[in-house]
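Researcher: Next sequence.
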Amino acid sequence: MSENATALQARALARLETIWDNEQLEAWRVEYIGRKGAVNALFEQISALPHTERGAFGKTANELKLALEAAFNAKIGAIKQIELSKALEAEPLDVTLPGRRPSRGHIHPTIQTLQEIYKIFGEMGFQVYRTRQVETDIMNFQLLNIPPFHPARDNWSTFYVAGSDEKVLLRTHTSPGQIRAMRAAYPNPVRAILPGLCYRYEQVSARYEIQFNQVEGIVVGHNITFGNLKGTLTEFARRMFGERPVRFYGDHFPFTEPSAQMDVRCIICEGRGTDALCKYTGWLEILGSGMVHPQVLRNGGYDPNEWSGFAFGMGPERIAMLKHGITDIRNFWNNDLRFLEQF
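Model: Next structure:
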C-alpha cells in the first residue's frame, strides 16, 4: 500500500503541474484531497491492515496529505500571480493618476483635552510637573492623611506590587505628586498641575475604568484663600466650557480642609435632569478641591503658620465626555476608529 501512496502522489503532482485555472484546480482538490478524495480513501484502508502495519501506513498517508495540500496552496498563489500579471498587461497602469492619500491619524480626544487643560492653566502661570506612576504606600496614602486602616482607603481598590520589601503600588490618584512638588519647590511658592495615569481595581462601567487620566493641581504661597481656589477653578470652567453655570458644595478629602466638589451644568440634558450620565441631577461633577490640609503642608516641607494653599483634581476623560456629549467612558480605551475619527 505504501507503493500505492507513492504512485498516487506522483500522479497527483504531475496532473497539478498542468493546471493553470481555478476551475480545474478545484476539480483537482476534490479528486485528491477532498472529503471523498483519493487521499481519504487511503485512510479508510487502515482498518483492514494488520496492526503491525497500521502505524507505518498511517504515517505515509499523512505525509502524502500534507505534501498535496502544500502543493495545492502553492498553486493557488501561482495562479493569482499569473492573473495579476495578465490584468496589468490588459489594463496598463496610468502613472498620471493621483495617488490615494493614506488615512492620517490624529490626536486622541483625551490628549486633546489634556492639551487644552495645559494651555488654560499655563496661561494662569501653572507649570506642568510630572511624577511617577509607581508609588509607595507612604507617598500615596500616609503623607496625605490616609494612614493604614483609615476609612478613606475604602474609596480605592489598589493594585499592589508583589514581592517588594516596602509596600509599592500603582498610584490610585495623582495626589502624591503634591508632596513631591512641594518638596521639590521648597522654600519657594508652588503653582503646578500634575497630570498622569492612575489605576484602581474598579468594576468597569460607562462611568468608570481600571485606568484613567487625572490632573492634580496645587498652589502654595502666602495668604492663599478659598476665594483664590473658587476664582481659579471658575475661570478654568469658563475657558473650558464657555459661559455655563457651575456650583461648589462641601465634601471631604483627607488631604484638604475644607473640601469641595465642583459641578458643571450637564451638557447632555442641559440641567433638566433627564440623563443617566449626570444621575438625573442636571449637574456633572468635574473635579474635587479644597485648601491643603496643614499636616500635608508640613509633610511637603512648609510651615502651615506661614504658608497656605489649595489643591484640586480632575479627570480629563470626564471633561471630554461633558464637552462632546459622550455617554460611555469605555470608548476612550476601546480603540474603535468609528469613535476616534469623530474628533
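Model: Residues 51-90 form the longest helix (40 residues). The chain has eleven helices and ten strands.
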